[in-house]
Amino acid sequence: MFKILSIFLLFNLIFSTQSFSNIDIKVRTAILQDYLSGEILYEKEPDRSIYPASMTKIMTSIIAFDLIKSGDLKLDEKFIISEKAWRLSTSGYSSMFVMVGDEVSVENLLKGIIVASGNDACIALAEGIAGTEEEFAIMMTSKAKELGMENTNFANSSGINDPDNYSTVRDILTMSRYLIKEHPEYYKWFSEKEFTWDRTGGDPITQGNRNPLLYKSLGADGIKTGYLAVERYSLASSLERKGRRLIAVGSGFETKNERSRESSKLLTYGLTNFDLVEMSKSNEPISSVEVWLGKQNKVKVYTKEDIYKIIKKGQKKKIKAKVIYDGPVEAPIKKDQVLGKLIIIYDQEPMGKYDLLALNEVKKVNIFTRLIRSFNYLIWGDV
């Protein structure tokens, strides 16, 4: 028998304040995503090709973080600074100000990249990991393809102008999300407001983080600015407030002030126009289904992943969840066996469908008990 159970869910909503009625972001291309649900809240030509400039350094950092995580690279490992790396610290580019022959730790190079946006640090890290920056760029592009960044190619580690170094704001969002999810302990470095490098042959240099949103009360905690004359100003940004995280990427802001103002506006739009609804927590029972000929009459079911949904503010009454299964389900039932579906409905339209799994094993009753239950069912319709 096909069964549909309506579930009364105690929705965990994170409320926001008064919302905008309209939004107009002054930028060439942009995208905004709710992190937990993965839903896109705003987009403006998100697949338009861009020169990512220093947002490229997000992937440079990812390559290093992945290697650290796998045990193939250590934070205290030191790389020798080449002349190629040093030249980028003397050519008017953003720099960590390393010197030829310096031995610099991976940790310092990464902080020089993340906080000071040092192009010289990028080359030093790339050469230390892959031998040459060209080989490192191949690693970067390979990782991009692995993450599904189909419209991205990396030609260098820093994002300096190169026609073969291109991406989209959607792809930049993808790698930003990956970094935040897979490397939370190192993502914290993107919120550091300054970095001091005790350079060889001179006084220590302290440089501030170029991300303007870190100095506002918005709650931003990363991630990376960019600038090229051909692209103008860009910014990948993220914030976390009261359990909600948003990620925004914009490219083609005309001025620094516009980059700061419009990026703040975009993140604020996400906070104030939508509610985040927790529908299901992974590995926690959400409902139960009836069992036939089992040692238990019911078995609890759950979803493997956390399920969050974004809805327009003030519309929580329009979202519902239903459990659909063909039951009662005959025992034996294995743990994690798919028993049905969780259907999310918003404003009478399907919003998502997810497998429901058995929380525990249910063994079949012995043959004598099966005969009695079968007889009762035939006579009384009682399972």
Task: Give a verbal description of the structure.
α1 packs antiparallel against α3 (106-114) and α3 (106-114) packs antiparallel against α4 (119-130). The longest helix is centred in the last third of the chain and has 18 residues, at 256-273. The model is unreliable at 8-21 (pLDDT under 50). With 383 residues, this protein is of the alpha+beta class. The protein folds into 2 domains: 2-13 and 286-380, D-Ala-D-Ala carboxypeptidase, C-terminal domain (Peptidoglycan synthesis regulatory factor (PBP3), Domain 2, Sandwich); 46-221, DD-peptidase/beta-lactamase superfamily (Beta-lactamase, 3-Layer(aba) Sandwich). It has a 7-stranded mixed beta sheet with strand order 1-16-18-19-14-13-17, with no helix packed on it. Strands 4-3-11-10-9 form a 5-stranded antiparallel beta sheet, with helices on both faces. β9 and β10 (232-241) form a beta hairpin. The protein is built from 9 helices and 19 strands. Helices cover 27% and strands 30% of the residues.
